Amino acid sequence: MRIHFIGTGDAFCSGGSNQTCFYVTAEEYRFLIDCGATSLKALSEHQISTNEIDGIIISHFHGDHYGGLPYILLEAHFIKARTTPLTIIGPPEVAERVTALSDIAYPGVDISKFSYRLEFKEFSEGALTMGPLEVQSFPVIHAAEANPYGVRVQYKEKVLAFSGDSGWTENLYHIERDADLFICECNYFDTEMPYHLSYKKIKEVLPNFSCKEVILNHLGPEMLKNRSRCELPTAHDGLIINI
């Protein structure tokens, strides 16, 4: 898999980074993990067409992680005249939440009548399929109203893991286990908060991780200020990693 980091910032685009969005290519299948409000512009800047996206995985229902969906869906219909189906996988109520968000952004536009079919799948205890991918999800600790999850995406023998937004939870061990790459949120450096991770906490639990590589994402102002002190790699917009 080839992971193109389209957006690596927090909700406030701290440091000028776009909100969370990863464009992943698994040979013939291409998908997004999360789709923050800045995603359509960021994808365009990297010359990635919405027609190239086969599926979208949403970790939770905060605007900096799924707020860009209405613009991508509308652009695919009105500008790109898309005809191929688009699969969206996310937490329970994903179809209702995406429809409601689109209704708020563009009242009177019915996404069920677009030029292409939207296929929604909800996270469950078992694995879901999306094209050639196997997607596993695990609840994490974040604002409960946002239905927060972390995910593991497997393509053939490769596994990409993503924490989503989360404070410390033992489920992060299930998410990162033996993954080829674990993208881990790290909003703070020293500050301990219930709904986000700190670099201090990640360093504490790192010896227990079994993933092959960790990269830190979703950096807030405190992390950006202390970035030079980090021993672990940090993501930035435009970064590409192959696993």
Give structural notes.
Strand 9 and strand 10 (158-162) form a beta hairpin. 44% of the residues are buried. The protein is of the alpha/beta class and 243 residues long. It starts with a strand and ends with a strand. It has a single domain (2-236), classed as Ribonuclease Z/Hydroxyacylglutathione hydrolase-like (Metallo-beta-lactamase, Chain A). Helices cover 21% and strands 26% of the residues. The mean pLDDT is 97. The longest helix has 12 residues, at 94-105.
Spatial strand order of the main sheet:
6-5-4-3-2-1-13
Cα-based radius of gyration, to the nearest Å: 17 Å
> Could you spell the SSE succession in H and E letters?
EEEHEHHEHEEEEEHEHEHE
Question: What overall geometry do the principal axes of the alpha carbons give?
Answer: globular
How far the N terminus sits from the C terminus, by CA atoms, comes to: 5 Å
Number of domains: 1
- Report the total helices: 7
Which descriptors apply to this entry?
six-stranded mixed sheet, seven-stranded mixed sheet, Metallo-beta-lactamase, Chain A, globular, 243 residues, alpha/beta, 21% helix
Provide the fold topology.
Elements: E1 2-7, E2 21-26, E3 29-33, H1 39-45, E4 55-57, H2 63-66, H3 69-78, E5 86-90, H4 94-105, E6 118-122, E7 128-130, E8 133-139, E9 149-155, E10 158-162, H5 171-176, E11 181-185, H6 199-205, E12 214-217, H7 221-225, E13 240-242
Parallel strand pairs: 3-4, 4-5, 5-6, 10-11, 11-12
Antiparallel strand pairs: 1-2, 1-13, 2-3, 7-8, 8-9, 9-10
